[in-house]
Amino acid sequence: MPNFLPQSRFLLVRTDNIGDVLLTTPAVAALRRKYPKAFIAYLCRWYTAPLLQQNAAINQILMIDDGFPFEIMKKIKELKFDAAIHFYVEPKGAFLTYQAKIPFRIGPRSKIWSGLLTHKIVQNRSKVEKHEAEYNLDLARECGTDGLTFPPTMFLSSIENREAAQILTKYSGESELKPVIIHPGTKGHVEGWPLKSFLELALKIVSKGDRVVFTAGKGEEYVVDAVRKLGNKSVNAIPAGALTLRQFAAMINQSKMFVGNSSGPLHIATALSVPTISFFPKMPLVTSAKRWGPFGNPKLNRVLTPLRDDMPLSSITPDLALEWVINVHQSKQTVGESDDETMIG
């Protein structure tokens, strides 16, 4: 294990998606705890950078865009990092830290580009022996961090929260009652609970006196159309892609609960300590909740998954989902404190 001075300079690298980046923030916190005087920078894609803003553990955010980032390479060289932690090894990021001649380049030994690293850590993430956030924490431990586990984090200003509350009032028609946010989208990455089931669940939620606001990303306009066809004044939708990422996060933060499939917005809700109900397939393991589920307080996060490997997510009925929505909403804790995953037969 390399030895680092208190004022060492670290570059953390994760250049893919929303949930992937948020699940590295426990490792960021662990590194800051170990090295309170260190300089910590984070290299990510431009569209995930807002997730890291106002995070006091990060001194500087570097953004990588499409094409070859000559300016970022120059900047990385100028910053003279002592170590880089690659939470996921991809060619552009690995080549940048290699070209910058960062002395210690740490990451999982999983792909051909791992050959550009100086410290290749065997993790075998495809075996799904632990959560993605725990794999990231293991990489931070290669830099001397302790064994403490931190939840994902995201930080918002009071102004952002006030503006988000106004947005929710505009679309829900209610300023006093916080709505339940439903986000059915998965970007096609994994099996999802059907949109039809989310719509049925929404009607059941509003029948109990709550309001529901659906959200959707760009390319998911069909979600908004389906909500409008319901014709229920207590179930509304925000136009697809109408919000910035931080506006979207602040809106989730102002909600009563988040309900959705495996997605980046689910991890935003978890990072903001908003109660969640989520749906995950049992198989394959690489897309299961064991690796990608909400990594937070189990009393605030309930995962619904089929009982058997051969059962689809559609086997979970809206009535059963409603029971858990009511349970988490009323008590903010789940039944079965030792397990945050509920198998539905």
Following the backbone from N to C, one meets helices and strands in this order, namely: EHHEEHEHEEHHEHEHEHEHEHEHE
CATH class of the largest domain: Alpha Beta
Work out the helicity level.
25-40%
The amount of beta strand, in percent, is 15-25%
Mind telling me which CATH architecture of the largest domain this is?
3-Layer(aba) Sandwich
Q: Regions with pLDDT < 50 over 5+ consecutive residues?
A: 333-339
Number of strand segments:
13
Number of self-contained structural domains: 2
CATH superfamily of the largest domain: Glycogen Phosphorylase B
Strand order of the largest sheet: 9-8-7-10-11-12-13
Kindly name the structural category. alpha/beta
Total count of helical runs of at least 4 residues: 12
Task: Fill in the CATH topology of the largest domain.
Answer: Rossmann fold
Question: How far apart, in Å, are the first and last alpha carbons?
Answer: 46 Å
- Sheet of most strands: 7 strands, parallel
Overall pLDDT level: 92
How would the global form be characterised? Answer: globular
Kindly provide the radius of gyration, computed on alpha-carbon positions and rounded to a whole number of angstroms.
21 Å
List keywords for this structure.
alpha/beta; 6-stranded parallel β-sheet; Rossmann fold; 345 residues; 7-stranded parallel β-sheet
